[in-house]
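haha ok so turns out i had the wrong file open the whole time. this is the CORRECT one, sorry everyone. sequence first:
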Amino acid sequence: MVSFMGQDFSLEDVCRVEDIHRLRALAISREAVRLVGQLNRPSFRLPSLRRPTAASVADSAVWQASKPLITGSLSGIVATCCIQPMDMIKVRVQLAAAEGRPTSPFTIASQTLRNEGVLTFYSGLSAGLMRQVVYTGARFGLFDMFMEKASDPSFDAVPGFAKKALCGISAGGIAAVAGTPADLALIRMQSDSLLPEAQRRNYRGVVHALSTIARTEGVAGLFKGASTTAARAMATNFGSLAFNAQAKETLGDMGASPTVQVFGGALIAGFASSFFSLPMDFVKTQIQKMRADPATGKMPFSGPLDCAVQQVRQGGITRLWSGFPTYYMRMAPHAMIALVLQDKIKGMWSAAGL
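then structure:
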């Protein structure tokens, strides 16, 4: 007899348990050998996930819905990286005009470079890129979606340019509201170094800027200037998307090559978007950078309309177009780069079967 934990067992019981374990080990070994043999067979294939084909991706509803947005975001990001220094100078020219200071872009650029260094020209780049992902992705994507809907025969009675204009204005307004928080962060980050040191916000990046604004001014504070931003975006997209589409169509009817259509349409759209949107952009900049008077706690403007009226009273109607050359040098290249890239990216999707 064998005693274990107060229990008595016979030797026969112990041997029987050992036999059971030995048989189980032998069965496991045989099964392992069988599986290894199957793995070595040429016809054996491990189960795996099938790689999606271009055709399956192209037919998916998710890709169809996201492709215009992705196309717009990519083109906007590249364009913003190229023209960010001009955007910085444009903002400072507008701020200088509102304060009655010299507005020469060359003077402002040289002073900025001398006093703050070359990296200052890329202040707010993170906010600018975030804005492009949201705003440009949405406006380009929505415009394509709206134009596709507008091609329905039920809208044939509407003139072609009117359809393009309505689609551009609608896409711009919707996209601008979504992109207002990033646009607000961009304006404040670009103008922060112009404030007295005690009044600077010292944002460390777009995430810090957005979280600080939400914490100190509430969620509604993230959409400060949203109405002006939307109005500016409507004017911008009326000038860029509607004029670009119409110019390409007209050039095509005149027999121009596809390359001439793309670049010619982008050039015309750059000027149109600059001219129509600058007054709203000027007011938007003043609204978004304003802060309460330290002594009275009163804001300099009660709203966008009050801001525009005060600016016109102080400098005439042309003040709303202050810095047009700089603004054009910022807007036209951005519109041209973004629109040309949009066509190239669309061609890349088509070449890939997407």
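The mean pLDDT is 81.
again sry for the mixup
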